[in-house]
UniProtKB/TrEMBL annotation:
Family matches, as InterPro entries: DHS-like_NAD/FAD-binding_dom
SUPFAM superfamilies to which the protein is assigned, alphabetical: DHS-like NAD/FAD-binding domain
Native organism taxonomy: Bacteria, Bacillati, Bacillota, Clostridia, Lachnospirales
Superkingdom of source: Bacteria
Protein's name in the database: SIR2 family protein
Length: 297
């Protein structure tokens, strides 16, 4: 296959009907800690947060795996964290990722840092229905990339500072007018919009009085995020995670093709649907350092 044919195949992915799936590899490339760095941070911080004997023993089992070189996800599968240990993991993770997220935003604003995903978005002609991006990341890199390109980032919340979760209304925030069609009909016009689906949560999300909000300036340590391990499958069935997961699966099912960036195929939340579509013959353009298991044929 010559280089011109390869270029044509790649160019065909950058059009309507493509769903983009983003994993931690993209964030890592922009300075957000990955699983390896997070594991080291947890090993440093968690022991000092524990006092109960059961919690200490529970964490020691996890830490023993990490010390042997077992990955964080696998270690948390091997030993299910106690409720308190899991809460400590969530808080340390949120603060650690949040600090890196804040540094990244500062670089964008003060130095004009150009994000790789900003350049990626420029390759698409985003139309009325918007473009869908699914990510397992907690950070707001994708949101920053959208807004530096003057594209609305739709995470299914409505509002700016105290945004409510309204998945059936959020798209109307990008409405810019009404266009008359043939006859007496009318059609809403939208500015470019990227629907960002986050089945594992986001640093901006918080649960207040049992109601999910997006509060970008609120305490990071209380963020609604699902940490690695067995418990994420339980947490994934609560609001807003369940809606984001369901929407993500719907978009995967109806997509014509996929661009997969920095995602190593290690998450059952997405892969039941994704692998079915890949095995059915839908094309995928994959950019990643490591594939855990991609049995697409």
């Amino acid at each position: 296959m010559d280089i011109d044919t390869i270029k044509k195949i790649i160019q065909d992915f950058f059009q309507e009907g493509t769903v983009t799936i983003v994993g931690s590899g993209l964030s890592l490339a922009e300075g957000i800690p990955g699983m390896g760095e997070l594991a080291k941070k947890l090993q440093m911080e968690i022991p000092g947060l524990l006092s109960a004997t059961g919690d200490i023993k529970n964490w020691n089992n996890i830490e023993n795996d990490l010390a042997k070189g077992v990955g964080l996800e696998e270690a948390l599968h091997n030993t299910k964290p106690s409720s308190y240990v899991e809460e400590c993991i969530r808080k340390v993770t949120a603060i650690y990722i949040g600090e890196a997220d804040k540094r990244l935003l500062t670089d964008i604003v003060k130095t004009g840092k150009q994000l790789r995903f900003s350049e990626y978005l420029q390759r698409f002609n985003i139309r009325n229905e918007g473009m869908t991006v699914i990510t397992t990341n907690y950070d707001r890199l994708l949101e920053y990339a959208c807004e530096t390109n003057e594209i609305m980032a739709d995470t299914l919340f409505v509002g700016k500072y105290i945004a409510r979760f309204k998945p059936n209304q959020s798209k109307y925030a990008s409405c810019i007018g009404v266009q008359r069609t043939n006859g007496k009909g009318k059609k809403l016009q939208y500015s470019p919009r990227v629907i960002i689906l986050k089945p594992h949560g986001c640093l901006s999300w918080h649960l207040i009085n049992s109601i999910p909000y997006s509060l970008p300036d609120y305490s990071i340590e209380d963020s609604l995020i699902i940490t690695p391990g067995l418990n994420k499958y339980r947490e994934g069935y609560s609001v807003p995670f369940d809606i984001h997961r369901a929407r993500a699966n719907e978009e995967i099912d109806k997509a014509q093709r996929y661009i997969i960036i920095g995602y190593g195929f290690g998450d059952d939340h997405l892969e039941t649907h994704l692998m079915q579509q890949l095995r059915a013959g839908k094309p995928a353009l994959i950019q990643t350092r490591l594939l855990h298991s991609c049995e697409c044929s």
